Amino acid sequence: MQAIKPSHADRGYYFSPRRVGAMVLRYFYLLRGSLPRIIELSYWPTMQMLIWGFMSQFLYEHSEWFFRAGGILIAAVLLWDVMFRSNIGVSISFLEEMWSRNLGQLFASPLRPYEWACALLMISGIRTLIGVVPAALLAIPLYHYSIFEMGLPLIAFFMNLLIFGAAVGLAVSGLVLRCGLGAESLAWAVIFAVAPLSGIYYPISTLPDWLQPIAYSLPSAHVFEGMRAAARDGVFLFDRFVWSVSLNMGYLALGMAAFLWAFRVARHRGQLLQMGE
Question: pLDDT tens digits, the chain, 277 residues: what are they?
């Protein structure tokens, strides 16, 4: 008996809504099974709404404030980038080891976890300098504004934001080490969570009264308040500096402790050899 060849339709050459629906269902199940992915869908629009909502409110009530402090927004953007890149510098260097499945090889050597953490902090500082300094120099011919005119206060602002961003990066890296690469989006998300409370583009007094004590528990809020005072009035608020340094010591200790604890748990569970892309 002669075999009957399947038609093009039988071979699947036609468009099938069922196959489309099956793939949509697959991606829906993947989404439903990952809480970080679900949260991320609404997270970024919410952060943008909070930052620019408070910014709009402040401009509406104090529009003349910016005319008296030329370049203050540029300084805010540059200093925010210090904190952001410090955080990302730690997280990306850490994630690159996970993506390449290199943790097992690293710790077959005499390398200690705290030594790795110190290396992540140092490379974060280098990456931040490489990223921010060219932008700060370019602002001089483009906008006739030099953030370097702040002098020594700029070093204080820079170091405090660098330490805070790196501390957050260490804590997030520990969380990814504990939960796996499904939580890697937290490397970008967590630092943006503190942005509305840091008063980057507006004073902390713009926030609702109940949020202000929470904001002042962050070193970044004291740094940006000090930055505005230096740019607008030419004064260095020493009390803000002391607060930011004191808080940073606590956050750095917590970030390091969280990272080392997560590493210890991952090693005991044999997860160091299982993580990767």
Answer: 455 555 554 555 677 788 777 777 877 776 776 676 677 666 666 766 676 667 666 666 666 665 555 567 778 888 888 898 888 888 888 888 888 777 777 777 788 888 888 888 888 888 888 888 888 888 888 777 788 888 888 888 999 999 999 999 999 988 888 877 767 777 778 888 888 889 888 889 888 899 999 999 999 999 999 988 887 777 888 999 999 999 999 999 999 999 999 888 888 877 666 655 4
Per-residue H/E/C for 147-201: HHHHCHHHHHHHHHHHHHHHHHHHHHHHHHHHHCHHHCCHHHHHHHHCHHHHCCC
Cα–Cα distance between 78 and 158 in angstroms, integer? 10
In single-letter form, the type of residue at position 271 comes to: Q
The CA distance from 62 to 65, in Å, is: 5
CA distances, 246 to each of 13, 90, 107, 125 (Å): 67, 21, 33, 20
Q: Confirm if 86 and 182 have CB atoms less than 8 A apart.
A: no
Q: What is the model's pTM?
A: 0.77
DSSP class per residue in 41-57? HHHHHHHHHHHHHHHHH
Of 236, 82, 228, 88, the residue nearest 159 (C-alpha): 82
Rounded to an integer, what distance in angstroms lies between the CA atom of residue 141 and that of residue 47?
A: 32
Structure tokens given for 238? 């020493």
Backbone angles phi, psi at 209, to 5 degrees: -55, -40
| Residue 1: both structure tokens together | 């008996």
